[in-house]
Specification:
The complex is a heterodimer.
Chain A (H helix, E strand, L loop, with lengths): L7 H9 L18 H14 L7 H9 L21 H10 L3 H13 L30 H13 L6 H12 L13 E2 L2 E2 L4 H10 L6 H13 L7 H12 L6 H13 L7 H12 L7
Antiparallel strand pairs in A: 1-2
Chain B lengths: L2 H22 L6 E7 L8 H10 L8 E6 L14 H13 L4 E6 L14 H6 L5 E4 L5 E5 L9 E5 H5 L2 E5 L1 E5 L3 E3 L11 H4 L4 H5 L2 H11 L4 E11 L7 E11 L2 H12 L7 H6 L11 E5 L25
Parallel strand pairs in B: 1-12, 2-3, 2-7, 3-4, 7-10, 8-10
Antiparallel strand pairs in B: 1-11, 5-6, 8-9, 10-11
Helix pairs in contact in B: 2-3
């Protein structure tokens, strides 16, 4: 079903219809405001080039739930959960020049570490490397590590030792034949299968760090298999990942726009939709 | 701890648990389990499923029902997820029985993108238009006190649609699992916990012990009915990298452990030798064969010997039927 919204500004306004009176944005209509869609909506506003005042309610909502240690959790009633989201906070606060909040958030992000383990010859990954976890006190995974790497990169800490180790972590978790999944490239000698979203995200995160030869497999895979990508999230990450290396993402962008125009209300995911707007904008939001 | 050691300890635990079960004398409960033939996915079994659920005493008139399938990753050539045809049949069965609302919800364990789970067009295309699909990985939660004591987690953050449903129906795929032996109804409960809180995968639950986490969830979340998709299961290196294995049946029961124990036996495993099932048998009915009332087709018709990693060979048993 084609939604009436069609042009970029109409897509943008469709997203903003989900804004709630408290200033935040929910994942789906009927839910309460949550940090991730609120932050991604703020970044979509930034990418769209609309006056920064329009983002003020979103940013204020996030500032209000920032913990004294600088972290931000899932929502106002679960401030101690989902603290990996602080990486997105760093990116948003950097772009909007909220220096004090940014410094606190970044300090927390640097203190958040994944658990490490000695090398196990049976596993095809180096568990001695420190990345970022979903939950404090657990292993590191591709997505929170990639977001943290992007956050440190855009906010001026590209050469921080945590960022450099994070980049090594991501390279280590790359599947030999190309791409990334959630973070296990192989199990018991069997190579696991890549995902589009984490592949695009990891490529983007490694933009400022990796020797292009080390990630060529991933770029080639995504470029070659792009016709198979059908989801809003997958298309967005493919556009962001490929275009950050100067690869052609024109056809992907066209399809992303089509998908965004036709997504039914029942399947509307504000976080993914905001990400799509960032991808369509072509603006450098996630790279320094 | 490597997998071999983990399994060795689990097997010892399982044996202890089974003995404890006998010693403590969990009251025998007649647990109905029905085997419904479904040779392939090209048919609508909604009438038959409705009849079995009704005979099992499941009353849905005016109720909000949440169907909880198992979506992990989507690779079309692999039987990883509960098949959409089974979900569609179950949803229609619930509507036939007068449910006021039927939703399909899942917090996929590996894929964050809901297009690869309940929002996939393949599911949308086969479901009745009245049936909504909800991505449980993102959205509001309800904090529910953990009634178990194994993980030490004080609460579980449960997706609100699960907490607000009158009736929760667990719909796993019949698969081997390279850490747990099998993954069925009990393990399927991981998918009521949003990834935005627990991650992809839900690594916190792994850190607390997968078996501990399953058992705490089982003691905390009320499941009203269970339908195992055993039409085509997965053997070998499940739950992702294994091979298809046709069994040709759905396993239905109001009792999660009874459904799991029966499915495990159909797969050629002795459920008393699978650690978390044996431990669940200490507080849930349905582990022991004598507790079951098997209905429908004769189980021998579907009995298989699922291939499994070497580490799990000692969990084999039978013939059971």
């Amino acid at each position: 079903m084609e939604h009436p919204a069609s042009g970029p500004s109409a897509l943008f306004e469709r997203l903003m219809t989900l804004s709630l009176p408290d200033g935040g944005m929910p994942y789906q209509r009927g839910n309460s405001s949550a940090a991730e869609p609120t932050l991604l909506a703020a970044l979509a506003l930034f990418a769209s080039g609309v006056p920064p005042d329009r983002a003020k309610p979103l940013l204020a909502w996030v500032q209000n739930i920032q913990n004294p240690d600088g972290s931000v959790g899932v929502d106002p009633t679960h401030r101690d959960q989902g603290l990996w989201l602080t990486a997105l906070v760093v990116i948003a606060f950097h772009h909007y020049g909220l220096k004090e909040n940014l410094a606190q958030a970044r300090a927390f992000l640097l203190s958040l570490r994944s658990v490490t383990f000695p090398k196990d010859p049976r596993l095809k990954q180096d568990n001695t490397l420190t990345g970022w976890p979903w939950v404090p006190g657990t292993f590191g995974w591709v997505e929170p590590t990639a977001w943290s790497l992007i956050a440190l990169g855009v906010s001026g800490l590209r050469e921080h030792p945590r960022a450099e180790e994070g980049a090594r972590f991501l390279l280590d978790r790359q599947i030999s034949s190309g791409g990334w999944n959630y973070g296990n490239p192989a199990l018991d000698d069997k190579e696991l299968l890549p995902f589009w979203d984490t592949t695009g995200l990891a490529l983007l995160a490694l933009h400022a760090y990796a020797d292009p030869k080390r990630i060529k497999n991933g770029l080639d895979l995504m470029e070659k298999e792009q016709e198979k990508i059908g989801s809003l999230s997958g298309l967005s990450w493919a556009v962001l990942g490929l275009s950050s290396y100067g690869r052609d993402s024109g056809r992907l962008k066209t399809r992303l726009g089509e998908v965004m125009r036709s997504v039914p209300d029942a399947e509307f995911h504000a976080g993914n939709f905001a990400l799509g707007l960032v991808a369509l904008s072509g603006k450098k939001v996630f790279v320094p | 701890m490597n997998r071999r050691q983990f399994l060795k300890d689990s097997a010892a635990l399982a044996n202890c648990a089974a003995l404890a079960d006998v010693a403590r004398g969990v009251p025998a409960a007649p647990c109905p389990v029905t085997l419904l033939p479904m040779p392939d996915y090209g048919r609508d079994l909604s009438k038959e499923i409705a009849a079995v659920m009704s005979a099992d005493g499941l009353r849905l008139k005016g109720k909000k029902v949440l169907l909880k399938p198992n979506f992990v990753e989507a690779h079309p050539e692999r039987p990883i997820n509960t098949h959409v045809a089974v979900i569609a049949s179950a949803a229609l069965a619930c509507l036939r029985l007068g449910a006021a609302e039927v939703v399909v919800g899942e917090a996929s364990g590996h894929r964050r993108d809901p297009w690869f789970s309940v929002l996939n067009p393949s599911l949308r295309d086969v479901l009745d238009r009245e049936v909504r699909r909800i991505d449980l990985n993102h959205g509001d939660v309800v904090s529910i006190t953990n009634k178990g004591r194994r993980t030490g987690l004080p609460v579980f953050y449960v997706a609100r649609p699960v907490a607000e449903a009158d009736v929760l129906i667990s719909m796993p795929k019949m698969k081997t699992h390279h850490w747990m032996g099998v993954t069925l109804c009990l393990k399927n409960l991981f998918g009521v916990l949003p990834g935005i809180y627990y991650g992809w995968p839900k690594n916190l639950l792994h850190f607390k012990g997968i078996d501990n986490s399953i058992l705490d969830l089982v003691g905390t979340i009320k499941v009203h009915y269970n339908i195992v998709d055993g039409v085509t299961g997965m053997e070998g290196d499940g739950p992702i990298m294994g091979k298809a294995r046709t069994v040709g049946a759905l396993v239905l029961s109001p009792f999660s452990l009874a459904a799991d124990a029966t499915a495990a036996r159909l797969m050629g495993f002795d459920p008393r030798k699978i650690s978390y099932l044996a431990q669940a048998g200490r507080f849930l009915p349905g582990l022991r064969a004598e507790d079951l009332v098997l209905r429908g087709e004769k189980p021998a018709r579907f009995a298989a010997k699922f291939d499994c990693p070497d580490d799990f060979k000692e969990m084999r048993g039978g013939p059971f039927f």
